Amino acid sequence: MSGIAGFRSSRNQHEEQKPRWQFIMGAALLIAGVIWGFRWWTEPPVAGLENLRYIQMTRTAVSSRSQDQVSRLSAALERRLKNGEMTEAEHSHFRKILQFAESQEWEAAEQMAWDFEVAQLGRSRPQGH
């Protein structure tokens, strides 16, 4: 009998470990999903090829701390949106940066413009934008 009891005991231990393993895998997948979702949500949008130069213009305007350049850039971006040459997501991100510049929060605007430019590296571009 002790052989059968030992077999049952080891089988019960294995069954008790199975839910723990499933819990660990589920928790790891949840954490990975949260990290991916956070990065996706906070990463700047992909800029179309024609709009990449506006990222450079934004960096120039905010690094020079010129309200005049910021105003002219803002008007140009509005025209591009109105003419369908820029997506709403691109425009929205540019507006966030320029709002910091308009409030003279230059360091924040510079950092956002830099992050926007860096986020474009190695990303595929949508066709037509």
Descriptive report:
By secondary structure, the protein is mainly alpha-helical. 76% of the residues lie in helices and 0% in strands. It is built from five helices and no strands. It has helices at 2-42, 52-64, 67-82, 88-102, 106-118. The model has no long low-confidence stretch (mean pLDDT 80). The chain has a domain at 49-118. The protein is elongated, with a radius of gyration of 26 Å.
Present the secondary structure layout.
Blueprint lengths: L1 H41 L9 H13 L2 H16 L5 H15 L3 H13 L11
Helix pairs in contact: 2-3, 2-5, 3-4, 4-5
Keywords:
0% strand; 76% helix; mainly alpha; 129 residues; elongated
Briefly say what this structure is.
This protein is an all-alpha fold and 129 residues long. It is 76% helix and 0% strand.
**Terminus-to-terminus distance:** 76 Å
Helix-strand string? HHHHH
Range of strand content: under 5%
The stretches of 5 or more residues where confidence is low (pLDDT under 50) are none
**Mean pLDDT, nearest integer?**
80
Which structural category fits the helices and strands? mainly alpha
Overall, the morphology is elongated
The major pleated sheet works out as: none
- Radius of gyration of CA atoms, rounded to a whole number: 26 Å
What fraction, in percent, of the residue positions are helical? over 70%
Number of strands: 0
Annotation field: number of helices? 5
